[in-house]
Design a protein that fits this description.
- By secondary structure, the chain is mostly helical.
- It has helices at 2-16, 19-39, 47-78, 81-113, 119-124, 126-129, 138-143, 150-155, 159-177, 182-228, 235-261, 266-283, 286-300, 304-317, 320-338, 344-360, 367-378, 388-398, 400-426.
- Residues 284-286, 319, 322, 361, 363-368, 404, 407-408, 411 line the site of aspartic acid.
- Aspartic acid binds next to helix 17 and helix 19.
Length: 436
Amino acid sequence: MAKNEKKKGIFRAYLDFNVLYKILIGLVIGAVVGVILASSGVTALPAWISMFGTIFTRLLKMIIIPIIVGSLIVGAASISPANIGKVGIRVVIIYLITSACGVIIGLLMGVIFKPNAGLAAAEALAADAAGKVADVSVWKTIYEIVPTSVLSSLVNETVLQVIFFALIFGICLSFLKISEDKRLSDIANTTFKIFDCLSEVMMIIVRGVMQYAPIGVAVLIAEVFAKNGAKVAGALVIVTVACFLGYLIHIVVVYGGLLKIYKLPFKAFFKEARTPFMTASVTRSSNGTLPTTMQAAENLGVEKEVYAFSLPLGATINMDGTAIYQGVCATFLMWSAMGRGLTIGEMALITVLATLASIGTAGVPGAGAIMLAMVMQGIGYPIAEGTNLAGAYAMILGIDAILDMGRTALNVGGDLGCTCAVAKKMGLIKADSVLK
Ligand code: ASP
């Protein structure tokens, strides 16, 4: 009996302990174990331990589609038809501008650091790239946003298509809700309540998943460090430094500027942004971080009608960190494979392509690396098997997990920053909000 009570006590204490600190502790433990493993030549964890990390990523994957469906439909249907155009257009424009700034910062970092791996190293790794290159094109990325079957988009978890349909559905629902025909407004309100319920239930599930996060995170991080610890050397260190410096500059200049323009308090914003930043860097998934980002927006006092719409959308279409990464890595690939930097024309094209690519990048781990292949193809350098370019690309893939940690944090920070800016501009923040 006494033993049982003690057990209950430990469990309660675990639940009550701040999730942020729990995840941080998991991260540190995982990193230390990973480095120790790497230095003793062990590059992979035993399958039964690795399973705990896999369970975490599967849990995150499990909740993504229902969260997007629930919150986007509720979000879009909650905005009054009079506001939806204004909020929607503002959100999308601000997302595009910040992503374009990201590419430009990334390209600047590339010009300054000239990351050059050297042809020999690239050649040696050429074989690794075989089979990793996806068939991607800009136009295909755009038209594939429109689903041919909503059910298959849901089943195949094609996030952008699900978002597209959920938005249309939510917007139409918002019109139906205020219909003068009572029958129509009744059924619309009932439908709205069902999706609202779905969205609320998902939030409870999310809180449960977050309690498991520290364990999953420790294992995932240990794997990343064990696998990459020794490989991160030479030119790849330069790529990593250039990316992270770019991320930092973006936070200071772009987010700092955004907060200043919209008169949002830095301290209060970054205090709340900490948890999503950290969750994003360990899960490496904007979609997986979505619940935490939403909680932060709620804590900041943003009205739900804005963030329930802008954050799920941003988790998929707004990728500032990914945009910076594209700029740095495209420069690295050019130096490695062609022995030269990018021309001004190529840079201009990359700015457009990488902004589009960041829209088409799913908010899941590693998606940006696939889009990098698309960007290279777009400027006329397809990553063909056995070439220097493919070798250099394989090197980037080798450190992708580390780069992805930073870029995902920034992707998520951008969603939150833009959401606060639009909410402030539209006066859609709560009376007691710290953003006032
Ligand atoms: N992992 C990133 C995200 O979820 C996407 C990427 O790979 O760039 O935001």
